[in-house]
Design a protein that fits this description.
Helix 1 crosses helix 6 (184-213). Helix 2 (63-70) links the parallel strand 3 and strand 4 (75-77). The protein is globular. It has 6 helices and 8 strands, in the order ββαβαβαβαβαββα. The longest helix has 30 residues, at 184-213. It has an 8-stranded mixed beta sheet, sandwiched between helices. It has a single domain, classed as Formyl transferase, N-terminal domain (Rossmann fold, 3-Layer(aba) Sandwich), CATH 3.40.50.170. The chain is α/β, with parallel strands linked by helices.
Length: 218
């Protein structure tokens, strides 16, 4: 863990839970895919018992695509503009996740708001990471908003996804101080470091919840 700045994580980090067979996850990402890469790394090292079945992105030039290709993880580009209705766009994503038999959907920088239609297909099986201490600063400009509003503390949150944007039950949060000389770039880098810590542990927690409640055969 990075020690160049102070932070707090709650609940406290414990060891990753073990899954046999490995937890089957699908990752939705729209950007560079740094969180996705962290999951790849932990999986390859045998530290996190996940099987990344598929990456889905809505961007042709998303950096996460190259990361998937580097380790031969199946990926699919599904563009909203290619569909006449959002429901059809989401249906294509849903069918892809079903095809790969995904147990847990992980939104790791997925810059699209999902509808109840999508959520209900994976009820209590979707998690999202957001760069603020929810419920503060929901939406797509959370880091910028925290600076402009003069906040003293910010961080990141992982939560189960429900019908209200950036809501749902919290799984884990990490908090840090916003320093006087912080800007969007410096604060983003710090928050990303914390995201890389709490997202894998949140997946471990969510996977245990899913296996305990929905997958009695495991």
């Amino acid at each position: 863990m990075d020690k160049s700045f102070n932070y707090i994580i709650s609940p406290e980090i414990s060891e990753f839970r073990r899954f046999s067979p490995k937890l089957k996850i699908g990752v939705l990402a729209s950007g560079k895919g740094t969180n996705f890469q962290e999951l790849i790394n932990l999986s390859e090292k045998g530290l996190l018992d996940i099987d990344i079945k598929v990456l889905i992105t809505n961007k042709d030039d998303a950096g996460c695509i190259r990361r998937a290709e580097n380790v031969a993880i199946p990926h699919k580009i599904i563009r909203g503009k290619d569909f006449s209705k959002k429901e059809l766009f989401e249906l294509e994503i849903i069918n892809t996740l079903f095809h790969y038999d995904v147990e847990l959907v992980v939104m790791a920088g997925w810059m699209k708001i999902v509808t109840p239609f999508f959520i209900n297909k994976f009820k209590n099986k979707i998690i999202n990471i957001h760069p603020s201490l929810l419920p503060a600063y929901k939406g797509g400009s959370a880091i910028k908003d925290s600076i402009l509003n003069g906040s003293k503390i910010t961080g990141c949150s992982v939560h189960f996804v429900d019908e209200e944007v950036d809501s749902g039950s919290l799984i884990m949060q990490a908090a840090l101080s916003i320093l006087k000389d912080d800007n969007i770039e410096t604060l983003t880098k710090k928050i990303q470091i914390l995201e890389h810590i709490i997202l894998p542990h949140s997946i471990s927690h969510a996977g245990f919840f899913i296996r305990s409640n929905f997958m009695e055969s495991y």
